Amino acid sequence: MPAHFCVFALISVMFFATLTGHGLLILLILVDPLLHIPMYFFLWQLSLIDILFTLAIVPKMISDFLLHKTAISASGCGTQIFLGWALGGTECILLGLMSYD
């Protein structure tokens, strides 16, 4: 049981650190007028995609971990796969656009 709690605590800390870091980055870019240039606009979009990617996967993983569920429904699996592909593809397109900036 202690190992179970340690894994849950580690995942939760990393989840909240990711959300906090990307949220603060977005807030900083939006608040500071000196950062209103294309590079930081793309960085803001990339942080938003990373937040959405994290929110699409981790909460379901944490809830299944706490409830000791080892299976996922077909619709839940399909949703996570779709979101992973869509957000991953969007991130690749955004990184390609950033390389031209």
UniProtKB/TrEMBL annotation:
Superkingdom, natural source: Eukaryota
Main location: membrane
Location of the G-protein coupled receptors family 1 profile domain: 21-101
Keywords (A to Z) from UniProt: Membrane, Receptor, Transmembrane, Transmembrane helix
Gene Ontology molecular functions: G protein-coupled receptor activity
Residue intervals passing through the bilayer: 7-31, 37-58
Xref: Gene3D superfamilies: Rhodopsin 7-helix transmembrane proteins
SUPFAM superfamilies given in the database record: Family A G protein-coupled receptor-like
InterPro entries: GPCR_Rhodpsn, GPCR_Rhodpsn_7TM
Any single Pfam family the record assigns to this protein: 7tm_1
Location in the cell: Membrane
GO cellular component: membrane
Its membrane topology: Multi-pass membrane protein
Protein name as it appears in the record: Olfactory receptor 13C2
Naturally occurring in which organism (per UniProt): Sciurus carolinensis
